[in-house]
User: Which sequence fits this backbone?
C-alpha cells in the first residue's frame, strides 16, 4: 500500500455490436477525481456504472481524454468498490486501443490533491478490421467474411479469428 492509496485500472472488453469498450477500476481509498486517456479511439459517450452518482461529472473529448470529478469536491467513489465505465466509440484507429501510459493518469485521493499509485492490469484491447476495413467495426450481416475468409463475425457479433464462414452454423 502507498500513502495515498492504490488503484487498479483495467481495459476489460469490447462489444463490436454496440461499438463499446469497457473499463473498470478499483481503489482501496476514496477517489475525488480521475483523469486518464485512451489511444486510437474516438469517443462518442461514456456511461459510468451505478456506483458513480448522477450528479458527478463524467467528461471526455473525442481524442480519448477522460475526466471524472465532483463539482462540489466530494469523494465520488467509495473505497473498495469496483467501478465500471462503458465507452461508446465512433471509430478505433488501429489494431489496438490502449490506456495511454505516456499521458497523465491521475486518481486524486485527498482533498489537497495527492494521488494514488495506479497499476494497469490490462493495458490494451485488440481489435480487428471488419470486412469494410473499419477497426472494431460492426458487420451488419452475421456471415460477412473477408474475401480470404481469414475471419468472420460470429452470431454474437464477436470476431472469430482463423475461422471461415463455412465452419460456422448461423441457423
Assistant:
Amino acid at each position: 500500500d502507498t500513502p495515498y492509496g492504490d488503484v487498479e485500472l483495467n481495459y476489460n472488453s469490447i462489444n463490436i455490436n454496440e461499438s463499446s469498450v469497457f473499463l473498470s477500476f478499483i481503489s482501496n481509498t476514496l477517489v475525488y477525481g480521475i483523469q486518464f486517456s485512451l489511444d486510437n479511439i474516438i469517443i462518442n459517450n461514456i456511461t459510468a456504472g451505478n456506483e458513480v452518482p448522477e450528479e458527478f461529472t463524467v467528461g471526455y473529448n473525442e481524442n480519448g481524454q477522460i475526466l471524472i470529478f465532483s463539482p462540489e469536491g466530494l469523494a465520488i467513489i467509495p473505497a473498495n468498490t469496483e467501478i465500471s465505465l462503458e465507452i461508446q466509440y465512433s471509430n478505433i484507429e488501429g489494431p489496438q486501443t490502449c490506456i495511454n501510459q505516456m499521458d497523465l493518469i491521475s486518481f486524486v485521493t485527498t482533498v489537497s490533491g495527492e494521488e494514488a499509485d495506479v497499476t494497469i492490469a490490462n493495458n490494451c484491447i485488440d481489435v480487428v478490421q471488419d470486412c469494410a476495413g473499419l477497426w472494431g467495426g460492426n458487420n451488419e450481416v452475421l456471415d460477412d467474411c473477408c474475401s480470404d475468409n481469414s475471419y468472420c463475425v460470429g452470431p454474437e457479433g464477436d470476431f472469430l479469428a482463423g475461422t471461415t464462414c463455412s465452419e460456422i452454423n448461423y441457423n
